[in-house]
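Comment thread on ticket #2218

A.B. wrote:
> Attaching the input chain for the structure job we discussed in standup.
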Amino acid sequence: MSRILVVDDEAIVREALAEALRRGGHAVDAFEAAPPALERFAQERYHLVITDLKMPGPDGLWVLEEVRRRAEDVPVIILTAHGTVESAVAAMKKGAYDYIIKPFRLDELEILVGRALEHGRLAAENEVLRARVVESPQDEPVWSPATRPLYELLERAARSDATVLISGESGTGKEVAARTLHRLSPRRGGPFLCVNCAALSAGLLESELFGHERGAFTGADRMRKGRFELADGGTLLLDEVSEIDPNLQAKLLRVLQERAFERVGSSQTRRVDVRVVATTNRDLPAEVARGRFREDLYYRLNVLPIRMPPLRERREEIPLLAEYFLRRHRKRISRGAMERLVAYPWPGNVRELANVIERAAVLSPGEEISEERIAPWLEGPARVPGGTLAGVPMEEVERRAIEENLRACGGNREKAARILGISSRTLRDKLKKWESLAS
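C.D. wrote:
> Ran it. Output below, let me know if you need it in another format.
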């Protein structure tokens, strides 16, 4: 159901307009003056605003400017008389969707309202798509008999709107589980957005989550909605939630408790209807004990806990996953190679398996991937000349592993961090440390 805000100082026009819109199946709030209307606009989510142009006190242009400042994707229709058509056209140049001349026919109003709502819907969808543009498309995941209990747990969790905390080692498929949870839930028709909490500094993450107003900081040349606003009606995934800065943890706690927040640079409180799913590869109770994670935030996130088992605990899934990753390459894998895959402990879990299959498929000249082709890659993530790590300090092993993966990824730090099973922030801190020691 669409929510429409009507502002008109003439009681007859206001009541007739509100009644007609309600008969059309819309939820309507009607006000005779602009200030109380905008006060309600700040508290509720509206899909359309219809305002008279000429009113005592703040007029329709003021309403238009305030709506555009607070929510650019909400269309505004101007009501005007014959003598003020030029002013209505000027309002359109300032961002109004359209205008209608009083007295108007209800069928004309119905058509115009339908177009405006569709325009607003497409504008909101475009913002969500822009937020998703860096995310790769996801195929239907593999669920084997080994993970059937996990799938059934996700099905049960999907019926609730409670916050879910998915824990597990890096590369176990926590994001896949979160997407499955969304797909199984009543929110499946809404957006699913993901924020990598480890990839951004505290300041940038706050803006990414909550949005910012124009001029809130250097470079903020326009208002920008955050992921909480864009995910309204859907699901927001907070990936690697343990990496959030302690100062920002308090703001996140408030959103989880009240579903309310303010954009950076604004004092206006906004409310959203978002289901939050968080993932972590850390032991959060241990992080709480060390004072690195708020205890109250942990309990707020851990309403429905789900653990993703490592790949070594579900080896029967390895052949299914290998075939799944091979689909796009039109290649097959030999029996000996598959046996090696099943026997390997997979410290990097599903992500490491996907990388090995991708590498083997690209480098294998024939249609079949042989055991000899994949064997060298299943001897450990960090190797040195001579094939032994004996006598090599751990710091050097770690450094070589990072350097080799960075070269293999063309310098892409986020991709290298994923392969290594560490957060982008951890990788960045290690590189900074080595740079400072070298200088």
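A.B. wrote:
> Thanks. Noting for the ticket: The two ends are 62 Å apart (CA to CA).
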